[in-house]
Amino acid sequence: MTAALHAAKAGADVCVVDSRPVPGAKMLLSGGGRCNILPLSVDAQLYATSSSPNTLRKILQSWRLDDVRGFLENTIGLRLVEQKRTGKLFPATGGGEDVRDRFLAALRRSKVRLLTNTKVIDILPNERRRVAVESGPGIVAAQVVVATGGLSYARTGSDGFGFRVATSLGHHVVPPYPALVALRNGRFEHTALAGIAVPVRLEVGDGRAKRVAVGDFLFTHRGYSGPVVLNMAHHVTRGLALGEHLPVRVAWLDRSESDWTEALAGSRGTVRGTLKEALPDRLVDRLLEELGLWDATLSSLRREDRARLLQALVAYELPWVDCGGYREAEATGGGVPLGEVDPKTLRSRIVPCVHFCGEVLDAVGPSGGYNFLWAFVTGRLAGEGAALARGG
Fold first, then answer.
1. What is the pLDDT of residue 31?
2. Disulfide check for 249: which of 203, 259, 264, 279 has CB 3.0–4.6 Å away?
3. pLDDT, tens digit, for every residue of 79-113?
4. Mean pLDDT across 5-10
């Protein structure tokens, strides 16, 4: 919809084709319906890509965050409120449904045609009717913008078509993977910890490839979630796509070994009693049972037991077995490499009448409005680029 608005503004005759009755279904799911539409600040290094990070940064910088906000407020007509504690920006009222409806109203004001309940089945670059649809003669188009999303939430229309069509047109597609997704546990006993939330430091991988983040961690009935897990899961799922099972380690409360050593040294009671002063009771009981230190006192701890205890507090290896998959993933990583499009127009370097934008490109951001930002920025580039290229 952003691409359509900017193409229309640049003078193009624009048609939005969508397989669903109403475009923009994914907006209704964001932020539990509240629609966290932008971050309050942006850091390009927080995005994951197999393409050039420098190219990604240049694309993001093509439309300043303040100007994107201005577009949402002035062109779309949204009133936005800041949530400074979390660094997020939300619509003041109405949530995702209001955002979607205001985008649709903006499309109507811009004389953009909507062709809904219409499934595109192919892009035919050498044909006048370049957009082949499931029923009908196809659609005449000078330029085509592929803005199909990834594989997440397929019920909204994101069924991977963009990846398939890019491959058929000659593009190499970085293998997609679920991102912003929970992990499944591999230990039945952990289901009893469901509902426990605790701040942690999370480490994924080893050595130079290790990635670290700090945030809130949540035990669920099926595994592990919370912002820090969702934002780090793409490292895990990318590894799975390559046949790797990366270790995930947790430092409870983001405390260091010296912090815990000091806390344990300052107490003369039981290990359980000391830990429960800082950690949730059920978590402490689970950790001590796994360590076989259920009744241990600090004064009786052997050196090797103390070392195992510290390891469980600062580098607990999470027994994960899988991820939630695309049915639960909020975003999809992988896609069309950024090097295969012109970063100024997102025009394909292989098929000049096709542009790509949004989730179908090889970039995915953390939660907090980053993927909306990517959609808006790349939508603008692709829309303006398509309008510019329509004569040639």
1. 79
2. 203
3. 999 999 889 999 999 899 999 999 999 999 999 99
4. 98
Above 80 in pLDDT, residue 18?
Answer: yes
Q: Judge if 20 and 169 occupy the same domain.
A: yes
- Encoded tokens for 120: 């595109």
CATH code, domain with 349 = 3.50.50.60
Residue type, 36: N
β pairing state of 15-17 and 113-115 = parallel
- Nearest partner of 333 among 361, 356, 352, judged by Cα: 361
229 and 283 housed in the same domain: yes
Range of the domain at 45: 2-179+330-389
**What is the count of structural domains for the chain?**
2
The pair phi, psi for residue 336, each rounded to 5°, is -65, 125
Are residue 131 and residue 19 in the same domain, yes or no?
yes
Would you give the DSSP letter of residue 90?
A: E
pLDDT of residue 154: 86
Give percent of the chain with pLDDT exceeding 90. 90
Question: Is the confidence at residue 392, as pLDDT, over 70?
Answer: no
Closest CA to 199 of 217, 177, 212, 175: 217
Alpha helices in the chain, H assignment, sequence order: 2-9, 53-60, 65-70, 95-109, 161-168, 227-241, 257-265, 271-275, 281-291, 303-314, 370-389
**40, 171 Cβ separation under 8 angstroms:** no
